[in-house]
Write a structure and sequence with these properties.
The complex is a heterodimer of chains A (681) and B (85). Chain A is an alpha/beta fold and 681 residues long. Chain A is 63% helix and 8% strand. Chain A is built from 31 helices and ten strands. In chain A, the strands form two sheets. Chain A has a seven-stranded mixed sheet with strand order 2-3-4-1-5-6-8, sandwiched between helices. In chain A, strands 7-9 form a two-stranded antiparallel ribbon. Chain A is elongated and about 100 Å long. With 85 residues, chain B is mainly α. Chain B is built from four helices and two strands; from the N terminus they run αααβαβ. Chain B has helices spanning 3-12, 18-25, 29-41, 51-55; strands at residues 45-47, 73-77. Chain B has a two-stranded antiparallel sheet with strand order 1-2. Chain B is globular, with a radius of gyration of 16 Å. The chains are: A alpha/beta (681), B mainly alpha (85). The interface between A and B is large, with 79 and 61 residues. Strand 10 of chain A pairs antiparallel with strand 2 of chain B.
Amino acid sequence: MSSCCSVEKVPEEKKEGLKVVALAGNPNVGKTTIFNALTGLRQHVGNWPGVTVEKKEGIMKYRDKEFLVVDLPGTYSLTANSVDELIARNFILNGNADVIVNVVDASCLMRNLFLTMEIFEMGVKNIVIALNKIDIARKRGVHIDIKKMEKVLGVPVVPTNAKEGEGLEELKRTIASMAEGRITTNPVTPVYEELIEREIEHISSLLRGTPLEEMYNIRWLAIKLLTRDQEVIKLVLDYLGSGKMDEILKHISELEVYYKRSLDIVIANQKYEFIDQLMHQFVTHFGEAKETFSDQIDKFLTHPVYGLLGLLGVFYVLFKFVFTIGAPLQELLDSAFIALGEFVAPFISNEALRGLIVDGIIGGVGSVLSFFPLVFLLFVAMSILEDSGYMARAAVVMEGIMRKFGLPGKSFIPMVLAFGCNVPAIMATRTLDDERDRILTMLINPLVPCSARMVVITFLAGAFFSDHKALVAVGIYAISLFLALLSALILGKFVVKGEESPFIIELPEYSSPSLKVALVHSWERSKEFLRKAGTVILFGSVAIWYLSNYPEPIGNGLSYAEKLGKVFEPFTVLMGLDWKAAVSLIFGIIAKENVVATYGIIYGIGENEEALISLMQNAMTPLQAFVLALVTTLYIPCIATIGAIRAEGGNKWAFVASIYNLLLASVVGIVVYNVGLLLGL
Amino acid sequence: MGKLDDVLELIKNGARSPKEIAERLNLTVEEVEGIIKILESLGYVEKVKMGSSCSSCPLKKICPGSCVVFKGSIYELKKDDHRST
């Protein structure tokens, strides 16, 4: 037998004389709840033969009889486009079930009855409809006349509210009666336009008299052939031969030319219209459809203008929250590292070793680790926004803007991910099928500030703009995102050209975020920050310490760090940054947090953030600090991100991304610094 | 042209949310979402599997998930729709 019917029949020994009841329905209609209610704890979970799709079976008891209940995979139709659909379809088609319970969501009747009609078309008679979520339908102002529905559909309909256990006894009773053959049904089947019906009849006439007639419903086979169902084509080919099959396919092609599209969508449309007409006979709507709470808020939050203002406002509050609660904790942690350095120093007599451990390791790593509270709180705030459903709205606002800048709209997913870390964000570009979309998104992704760059931004904003630190931080984020969009426009026009692929976004309902979940998620995410501090930043700190102290300690121009910095200083000075900034930026390529750590080590005050801020305030103006924060955000991505781009796009695009970001950061740095000077900042 | 065609056409023409389509076709959002599910089962749109990027990420073992999660669903129009004539 062909693969069309390859799902094994329920083995007789397993049935042990039990009648088999199959539950079919759309996903999330309460099928599993009904399955659990019918079978209680008498369940067995395994896999369908040959596939990794879960198969649930259980025993239902009704009065003195037992029934084997099989939970079929949830599907929206019975085409051959997915394994789930094939399993459900073949199980029904093979006549495995003595009774089929079609679980239908009363609150989304149209969509659910589409599957019902597909089952009816298979010629199935032993079917009962469990009309679930009837309570939700009522709340939405939908009244369903059950008696009329039964009459129109030609099968028994049992209203249920599975969550509350309502209607389940009646359902069991109906199943038992049907299994015993005490219920007669006459399922209605869709009627199509004359041209389609004529072709169904033509194909049916070719199939009549073949062994297929005894195994399957001929009309169903004909309809599936019209939709070019590959499984059915293979099956029928075995019995009809290629000559007749070619004739059928020729007719199908002619109809497709007439309808100017493929027949599966034509038939699906006509089936949908048929259901619509049926529903008018038993469904009435009362009252005006009320706007939900989500709808009302979404009017503002997804609006192109108000939504953007809302987004900026939310991020401002987010940074206010992070700074207000995080800053005292950061100071506390900073003091702890100072105390640790002071405690350890007297125990190490060797000056070089003391310098390495106190200034290099404790100082370098400590200066970054002291930002842990800020990073943790940022993740807490982000988790709350995600859980509440707001981030999806923010993404929609961003998507609308991104589209205007020629960026593939779907690339907002990697863009949102990048706020956490650019590496998984680059990996997420795999969700974009189009090569042009993928490359373009990869190139601009490093311009979205990740949590590592947040450390630098919050440090410099806090040190130089104490009264407006949240505003400055949001400002740098906004400039970076604007430049990402501008870059998309430029790169999309001149470097990576192509067409955008259409898509649609379904927003989740708003929900109350759980603080416990947010804390757990944030801890999971923050652990990466700690791990990084113990590896990449530790390595960077030791390297910076060495370069700053050899061959001579920093200060007289002989250290490797000064020499390295001086090479680049003639360039960085154009944006108001000295050799120390140049060295910091070089080490920032290893990990962006190193920009802060490098300053601590160069100044030789290690973990003492207060002293570091004081020294930096003497050496830099707020304008220079702003430029440094901006350049750190925009210039060459960190090594891990470059590696990710290389892995996903190849050497060429890793090189292009690095050079483009460097050029962009340089131009922006020079422009902002010089404009700032002209404005007297 | 039926409702399924109308929804498909609007997605092709740049409509971005079921709500936008519902307003333009004078349908409920629930009905549009239902139509999208039917179109998905027919193979005309495809749900973007966002989880797959993390599961296939080479940094999976060392990254506890510092990326930001998107809770919505995205359906992409299948480009290689061989059935279009």
